Amino acid sequence: MRGRAALHHFGQLIPFSSLCRGCETRRLCLPRDLDEGQERQLRVVLRRTASYGRGDRIFAMGTPFTALHIVKDGAVKTQQLTVDGNVSLTGFFLDGDLLGLDAIGSATHPCEAVALQVTTTCPLRYGEFERLCAQIPPLQHWLLHRLGSQLKAFETLSSWTARKELTTRVLSFFLDLQQRLAVRQKPLAGYYRMPMRKCDIALFLNITPETLSRTLGVLRSNRQLDIRGQTFRLTDVTRVRRFVGA
What CA–CA distance (Å, rounded) separates 139 from 144? Predict the structure, then answer.
């Protein structure tokens, strides 16, 4: 598997008000309707941050599942080793997303998570967090919502990979990515920063980098997608939606 062992460090204990209320990612992750008493309870399981460099492994495939990770800033990819020895990239996680949901109900992680860039996460010790969810309904609802969202994302991926038309598959990916980035960053002259490399996108879509490059050239000629370095923009979102049937 790619990605070296994590060289992360855990931050010092941080007051909840500083860790969450002053965090720009706060609006994307935990529930907003917790009262002061519930926040004090949550502080027990959410009180540290973990930092990772590009290529660092946050958790490895087959290792014990002990915590969920909220991506505070940065970006993460998840991947698995297939039976034939190849790497299958299963997802991209941005700030506010929750890592490790696919390990709930299992003793080990079914995939590994690797930082795509300098990344900070907020670990949630799952045993304690699960008990807390039983006491605080908004947390339980939040967790179920996140589980449902990830299931929907996997279903969406299955629909993409089932499509034979490459342009539709690639445009669907960039439409979804732009929608996710639009609530996280301000575009510069209409362009969004891609947190992943093109080779990772190709692996995620189960095509070769060369095939992706050719398809991007077609989409650029059709004035549907424009990529400049590590930035991109859909030239006409309404037109793209109609094209992919979204």
Answer: 9
**Mutual orientation of helices 166-182 and 209-221 as an angle, nearest 10°?**
80
Residues contacting residue 27 through CB under 8 Å, at least 6 positions apart:
96
- Indicate the residue type of 49: T
Q: What digits encode the pLDDT tens for the residues 101-111?
A: 999 988 899 99
At 204, give phi and psi (nearest 5°): -65, -40
> How far apart, in whole angstroms, are the C-alpha atoms of residue 1 and residue 122?
24
Give per-residue pLDDT as tens, 5-57: 333 343 433 344 445 666 766 666 777 777 888 888 887 787 688 999 999 99
Instruction: Give the list of residues 6+ apart from residue 112 with CB closer than 8 angstroms, or none.
Output: 1, 3, 57, 59, 60, 61, 78, 79, 80
Strands 75-81 and 112-115: antiparallel
Q: Strands of the chain (E only): list them.
A: 9-10, 50-52, 57-59, 67-73, 75-81, 87-94, 98-99, 112-115, 119-125, 192-193, 225-228, 231-234
